[in-house]
């Protein structure tokens, strides 16, 4: 039987798994793999400028295509640089297979050059991690990695590849099937539990659906909307679940939680049945745990057994894939009399509508409203911070408009590489990213990747000269002591002689131009629409639009630290 090197089997395995794109950065322990990939030429190789960005790109590629994102990095610092990206994907249930180079087996444990125990380092932030110790196990391990990443609750899998294993000759066979003892993810719905939950729903006077990110991961948004319309039950979403039902739908109440809409938070606090699908009930949506949905029985559908009753005790647990569960619900769904309850929710929404004050300067809401007007179809990627919460509150999401972000980990620096990965996976879609001036600089080097790949993404930078979300907390709870948040200050923040701060660094327009991209600065509301129109005409290069906004802009509503969903700061 023909024998081939592990490097050749690696390339064969990727092709067998249907991999079309690989995000990789080379090094000493992976140079032979890079050589084989280059000789084969059938897989598109994306060469980012930093390994953290590389994983974010693979992550967004996976989120927006439904495929597994694939990464390849070298050992040592190459491997440790992927930690943040793997944790981001793990918290948000994104299927990624990350291959890391490793020193030869006889050097492992000897503090060799660029040797780290990356499997040990990432054990708590990956779904599974393993070092390939034998050449004969290589094909099976790669097959299992892809299977584990995309089944059950999706997540990142790390496969560590010692250099000598990959150069060793072995079988050219790649397994056709997977049989992992102890890993049999359940997706089917327990009909008895589901019928029990539906009976409770039918008896409820104030029923409420809580839609989490699991619905989007399962691609269940359309069937979920059908169920909601049939039953006439209102819907609140987590930030990650936004878009489970179109945001302009009359039964959509809003996001709940830390920066949730008043009507949504009040609905959760007063419902008598909370029917939740695909959410972990993390602290950002629950507020004070023992007072979360205090009047409600709780149903929880989730594919991950460990997520059920982990944070919030539930009355009816259902372990199932969200799409399968909602599809089965559609068969039994009946219209409920919710008119009185809907009227109460509408009264709450009118009591404190979701809006922003308009000041003298251009408002973030002006920008978001223009995005809503200008783009009928888009993928919007956010970074992390105030702009992220504002996007989650105001961006219109439907079947043609999608939004992704780092939710569970809250990773600054996700926005730009995320937009790159989304565009690579969806070349015919319009891709925008909204970033803060702080977050965008964490992976600004990826402008080179976007330019060289000829990706016409639109990068909207909300520049308020501060780390805005931290500054908001400092303003509200720390006596307006803006320690470590003024991005304009630099060394002058340590002086007391009253000198004026220098011009903001960098000049984002010049920075864009230095990369070979387009750059525009917008300071007035009337300049917003022309800037987007100009960006649309740039079909071969990325465009940075820097929006100069007021540092005093705040994100409201906001739950007080340690407070309940009803203890909201509405304005200040």
Descriptors:
single chain, 17% strand, six-stranded parallel sheet, 572 residues, 35% helix
Q: What does this 3D model show about the protein?
A:
This protein is an alpha/beta fold and about 575 residues long. It is about 35% helix and about 15% strand. Helix 2 links the parallel strand 2 and strand 3 (about 45). Helix 3 packs across helix 18 and helix 11 (about 220-230) runs parallel beside helix 14. The longest helix is centred in the N-terminal third of the chain and has 15 residues, at about 50-65. The protein starts with a strand and ends with a strand. The model has no long low-confidence stretch (mean pLDDT about 95).
Low-confidence stretches: none
The total count of strands amounts to 22
Strand coverage percent: 15-25%
Mean pLDDT: 94
Shape: globular
The whole-angstrom Rg is 25 Å
**Assembly of the depicted chains:** single chain
Largest sheet report: 6 strands, parallel
Share in helix? 25-40%
**N-to-C span:** 75 Å
Report strand order across the widest sheet.
Answer: 3-2-4-5-7-6
Number of continuous helical runs? 22
Please state the structural category.
alpha/beta
Topology:
Elements: E1 3-5, H1 6-16, E2 21-24, H2 31-40, E3 44-46, H3 51-65, E4 69-73, H4 77-80, H5 83-91, E5 96-102, H6 118-121, E6 128-131, H7 138-150, E7 156-162, H8 163-167, E8 169-171, H9 191-203, E9 207-211, H10 213-217, H11 221-231, E10 235-237, E11 252-255, H12 262-270, E12 273-277, H13 283-286, E13 297-302, E14 316-319, H14 322-332, H15 339-351, H16 364-374, E15 378-382, H17 386-394, E16 401-404, H18 415-425, E17 431-436, H19 447-452, E18 458-463, H20 468-477, H21 508-515, E19 518-522, H22 528-536, E20 543-548, E21 558-559, E22 568-569
Parallel strand pairs: 2-3, 2-4, 4-5, 5-7, 6-7, 9-10, 9-12, 10-11, 12-13, 13-14, 15-16, 15-17, 17-18, 18-20, 19-20
Antiparallel strand pairs: 1-8, 21-22
Helix pairs in contact: 1-2, 1-7, 3-5, 3-18, 9-14, 11-14, 12-15, 16-17, 16-22
């Amino acid at each position: 039987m023909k024998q081939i090197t592990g490097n050749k089997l690696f390339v064969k395995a990727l092709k067998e798994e249907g991999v079309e794109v690989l995000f990789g950065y080379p090094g000493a322990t992976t140079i032979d793999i890079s050589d084989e990939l280059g000789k084969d030429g059938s897989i598109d190789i994306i060469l980012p400028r930093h390994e953290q960005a590389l994983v974010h790109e693979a992550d967004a590629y996976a989120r927006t295509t439904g495929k597994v994102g694939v990464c390849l990095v070298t050992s040592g610092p190459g491997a440790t640089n992927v930690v943040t990206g793997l944790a981001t994907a793990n918290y948000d249930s994104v299927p990624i297979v990350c291959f890391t180079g490793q020193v030869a087996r006889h050097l492992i444990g000897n503090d060799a050059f660029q040797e780290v125990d990356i499997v040990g380092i990432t054990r708590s932030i990956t779904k599974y991690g393993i070092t390939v110790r034998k050449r004969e196990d290589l094909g099976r391990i790669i097959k299992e990695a892809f299977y584990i990443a995309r089944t059950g609750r999706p997540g990142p899998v790390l496969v560590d590849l010692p250099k000598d294993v990959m150069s060793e000759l072995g079988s050219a066979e790649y397994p056709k099937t997977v049989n992992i003892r102890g890993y049999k993810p359940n997706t089917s719905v327990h009909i008895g539990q589901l019928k029990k939950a539906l009976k409770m729903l039918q008896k409820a006077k104030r029923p409420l659906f809580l839609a989490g990110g699991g619905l989007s991961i399962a691609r269940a948004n359309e069937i979920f909307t059908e169920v909601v319309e049939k039953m006439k039950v209102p819907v609140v979403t987590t930030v990650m679940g936004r878009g489970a039902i179109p945001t302009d739908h009359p039964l959509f109440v809003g996001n709940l939680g830390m920066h949730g809409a008043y009507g949504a938070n009040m609905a959760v606090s007063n419902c008598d049945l909370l029917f939740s699908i695909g959410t972990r009930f993390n602290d950002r949506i629950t507020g004070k745990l023992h007072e979360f949905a205090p009047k409600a029985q709780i149903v929880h559908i989730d594919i991950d057994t460990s997520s059920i009753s982990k944070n919030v005790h539930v009355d009816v647990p259902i372990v199932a894939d969200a799409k399968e569960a909602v599809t089965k619900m559609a068969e039994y769904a009946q219209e409920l009399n919710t008119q009185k309850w809907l009227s109460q929710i509408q009264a709450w929404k009118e009591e404190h509508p979701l809006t922003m004050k308009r000041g003298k300067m251009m408002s973030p809401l002006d920008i978001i409203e223009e995005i809503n007007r200008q783009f009928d179809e888009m993928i919007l990627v956010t970074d992390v911070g105030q702009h992220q919460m504002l996007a989650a509150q105001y961006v219109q999401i439907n079947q043609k408009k999608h939004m992704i972000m780092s939710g569970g980990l809250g990773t600054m620096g996700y926005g730009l590489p995320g937009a790159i990965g989304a565009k690579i996976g969806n070349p015919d879609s319009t891709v925008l990213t909204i970033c803060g001036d702080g977050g965008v600089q964490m992976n600004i080097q990826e402008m080179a990747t976007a330019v060289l790949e000829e990706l016409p993404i639109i990068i909207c930078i909300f520049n308020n000269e501060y780390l805005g979300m931290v500054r908001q907390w400092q303003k509200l709870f720390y006596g307006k002591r803006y320690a470590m948040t003024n991005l304009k200050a630099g060394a002058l923040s340590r002086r007391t002689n009253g000198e004026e701060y220098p011009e903001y660094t960098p000049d984002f327009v010049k920075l864009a131009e230095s990369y070979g991209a387009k750059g525009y600065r917008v300071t007035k509301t009337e300049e917003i629409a022309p800037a987007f129109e100009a960006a649309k005409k740039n079909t071969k290069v990325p465009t940075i639009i820097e929006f100069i906004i007021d540092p005093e802009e705040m994100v409201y509503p906001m739950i007080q630290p340690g407070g309940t969903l009803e203890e909201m700061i509405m304005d200040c």
